[in-house]
Amino acid sequence: MKIIQYSFMHLQRILKDKKILLLGMLMPTLVVSLVVFFTNKSENVSSSNIYVDVVNQDTGLKGEELINELEDTGIINLTKVTLEDGERRVKSGNSSFAIIIPEKFSSALEQADSEATEVSILKLSQGNVDNIVSNKINSFIMNNILATKVANNINSDNYDKLKNKLINNIQDSKVKVEKSTFSTEEKTKTVNIAFLGVMISFMMYTMIYFVNEIMEIKRNGTLRRSISTPNSNITIGGALLLSFLVTEWIQVAVMVGFTKIVLKVNWGNSYAALFLVFTSFILVILSLGLLLSRWMKNETQSAIVVNMVATLTGAVSGCFVSVEYLPGIFQKIASFTPQNWVLNALKEVMFNNKGIYAVLPSIGILLLFAAAFFTAAASSLRTVAQN
Predict the structure, then answer these.
(1) Which of 285, 238, 237, 278 is nearest to 256 (CA)?
(2) I need a surface site. Which of 17, 120, 284, 288 has the fewest CB within 10 A?
(3) Would the pTM count as exceeding 0.70?
(4) Stretch 86-95: mean pLDDT, rounded?
(5) DSSP state at residue 295
């Protein structure tokens, strides 16, 4: 096919400048690796959100009350999982830790039996973030035990005797939050929104290389000669996209491989899903770059415009700040940015270990973005060559 032949021609020209190619491939890996290193180096938290899994085995209502009380703090975000999933997510680094509420939790509180209310915490041997949650659990248990003891004694003792008896009983009641720590030798690092946001943003900024390549083939007359051939605009534009798709995928492979092997980043269980998500996003980037090149006159303009487009769309998509913290109007706009869809897809694959089926909607939307940008760009390719 002509499109394959032309893409190889473009690829050979791209590979000639090895220094720029090498820099373009290694820079995202370097920056993303630094973000992973420093975001995982901090072991403690203060007022930042805590993401915790909870396994509620309680047959009564107190387990749900405890979950609601933890969520009401505003900084603890709970995800209900099974015991098996909780252990797997903690070991893989997809969750800070997991809380296990015992089966007889409610009945133990009703009987003021502190020993039977033991709540287990599964964690990696890193940090003390679980202390915040442990204190909340202890407070909940003690308040419920106190209420039970008051109810059991209020009708039989006068005030002074009741007070002394409660103090003695509470001192004798030792609330335990049992912690099970997994070996750090088997753990992989938890990635956060900062990591994904930086990675996605850098991929958007690589659009500059693609636009500059179009500027170069326009300047040396290659694009004009291509347009003068019987080949369609789709064939010519598709060859450009295909050649850069190869280089972009080398960049992604280096980044994923390095962070996986050296920094132990967990990329989920479905590399097929990752491949489809990244491929769809790369096609969006290249198609948008081809479209923007219509209005570019030189490399300076391309750098300014690409940086502006990538930064503005990144700001409202959730790459820099989580969408939940953005103003309402920006939360609505986020759905119209490709970065938001690739961010959601990567969260599903990396945080929840989902596969291709779970990210198909996001992939479909990304491909629609790519098709729209490419169609508009291909229709104006002759204009690009003549400008």
Answers:
(1) 278
(2) 17
(3) no
(4) 72
(5) G
